[in-house]
Structures are given as C-alpha cells and as structure tokens.
Write a structure and sequence with these properties.
- The two termini are about 15 Å apart.
- Strands 1, 2, 3, 4, 5, 6, 7 and 8 form an eight-stranded mixed sheet that branches.
- This protein is globular.
- The chain has a single domain, classed as Rossmann fold.
- The chain contains twelve helices and eight strands.
- Strand 2, helix 5 and strand 3 form a beta-alpha-beta unit.
- The protein is α/β, with parallel strands linked by helices.
- Helix 1 packs parallel to helix 5.
Length: about 280
C-alpha cells in the first residue's frame, strides 16, 4: 500500500509544477528542480491544432506520456472523466469534443493544479467542465455516471492500481470505455529505476508490466482489453534526468533498453452488470 510520505511527495512535485506555470509561465516538465528535466516522455504529444485550442498554460502544465484524447471517439452528449487532470488540457479538449450537451470532469488531488485548471477553463471559455478535488483511488462520483474514463500517465503514480481500476469500472456506465495513456514495462526493469522516488513521480518507477496491466483490468471486470505500444523509450534520450536521479546511465544501458514503453490502454465495461462472482466481489471493493 502507498504510504502518506509517498503521496505527499507526489503532491508536492505536481504542486511545484503548477506553481512554475502559474507564476512564471515556464514549462513544468523541463528543468524545474526535482521534476523531469527535458523529459522525452512528455514531449511531442499534441498537435498544433490541439495546442491552439487550449490556453498556453494548459499546454505548459502537461506532464503526460501520451494523448488520451486521440485514443477514442468521443460523441456529443457523452460524459468524460479524466483521472489526474493536472492543468486541464485533456479535460478541455474532451469538453469541446462532447459538445455543450456533454460534460467533462477532471479529478486531481493537488490544489495548485486544480486552481491552474480552473484558470485555464475560464480563459478557454469552456462551460461544460467541472474540476473535482479527490484521489483516483476514491473517485467522488456515483456509480454508472460517466461514459468514458481517460488518464494521462497518472495511474502509474498510484500504489493501489487495483483499486483505481475498480473505481474506474464502478463509475463507468455499462458499455462505458476506458482509454488511457500510460507507461508500461516489458521484461525486468533495473532496481535503480524502480526504487527512485524522482522517477516514481515521473511515472516510470511505478509502471506495470504490460501483461500485469491486462490482468488487473480483467480482474476489475473489464473486457475488450487492448494494450497498444506507442513508443519505446531510449535510455540515452533520458540521460539527463536519470543522471539527476543519481543513476549511472552507462552501467544501466545494457539492462534497461527496451524495458520502458508508453502505451494506449483500452478496455470496456460490459453491458451486463458483472463478469462473474469473484470479479463482482472485486469490482465492488
């Protein structure tokens, strides 16, 4: 289980990122002390058209590993929930896609990120958005209340991913879709990465093996599970922030190549109420 210190560490890192953007308009993912510096995981994720559709500070505060709004078709009138919504970029883009008859929720535990997201919402003039304070392990929405759950490199930050996936299943309506960007691993990941708190906050150290991710989704009752690898991270590209974490990159290279990947992860909540007795008990926990 996650300790309070771990959660506090994560909250402080993302609070610092939000303050960097709000106070100085600097890129949160690049060269802030203790944050990912010039991180290849966070770069090149959104098109110029998407960047132009949201306030600049929403782009600057983006700390994800993918673009979940590109994962799935969003239909007018649908309700979308973004787990760990940060500065609000994916919420605002989703809100435009579902239109005025739909709604987009953003959930975040960090006061500074929520304040930044609400500022970005005001500047964007998007009304069908609501930002909620809370934790992704305990989503403050009722059962069967959203059509789509998205997330952008946040589930890896949780030490209780099973509960996060059960909560996502709970709030989805029957037939609802789960579509997230996340970091996954393939094969053994060196302990130096797994045990680095900086990289945990940067969502590498907590990454699930791709097969474990599938198994956890199935245990939460999801079906139509698909893990599509979108990028293979080169350790050499990440030399700067790995070195800042105190890791000997040259020694790590032979062990780590091909082990850290980003993926589009999709699944569906069945239209029937449950996938089986054991799964039902897990889904309701």
């Amino acid at each position: 289980m996650e300790t309070a210190a771990t959660k506090d560490e994560i909250r402080e890192k993302y609070s610092s990122a939000a303050r960097a953007v709000a106070d100085a308009g600097t890129v949160a993912s690049c060269c802030e002390p203790g944050l990912r510096c010039c991180d290849p995981i966070t770069t090149g994720l959104y098109s110029a058209d998407q960047a132009g559709a949201v306030p600049e500070k929403a782009m600057l505060a983006s700390l994800g590993c993918g673009n979940p709004t590109a994962l799935i078709e969003l239909r007018p009138g649908e309700t979308v929930l973004d787990l760990g919504s940060g500065g609000g970029i994916d919420v605002l883009l989703s809100a435009r896609r579902v239109g005025p008859t739909g709604k987009a929720y953003g959930l975040d535990m960090t006061d500074e990120m929520l304040a930044l997201a609400r500022e970005n919402q005001s500047q964007a003039g998007v009304e069908n958005v609501e930002f909620l304070k809370g934790e992704i392990e305990n989503i403050p929405l009722p059962d069967n209340s959203v059509d789509v759950v998205i997330s952008n490199c946040v589930i890896n930050l949780s030490a209780d991913k099973d509960r996060v996936l059960r909560e996502a299943f709970r709030v989805l309506r029957p037939g609802g879709r789960f579509a997230v960007s996340d970091v996954v691993t393939r094969g053994a990941v060196p302990d130096a990465i797994r045990h680095s708190m900086m990289l945990w906050v940067g969502c590498i150290a907590g990454a699930l093996d791709e097969q474990d991710y599938r198994a956890k989704l199935a245990a939460a009752c999801f079906t139509d599970i698909d893990v599509e690898i979108t990028r293979n991270y080169n350790v050499e590209d990440a030399r700067h922030f790995l070195t800042e974490a105190g890791i000997d990159v040259d020694a790590l290279l032979p062990q780590a190549e091909g082990t850290i990947l980003s993926a589009f992860i999709r699944a569906t909540k069945p239209t029937q109420s449950c996938c089986g007795t054991s799964c039902c008990s897990g889904a309701k926990a």
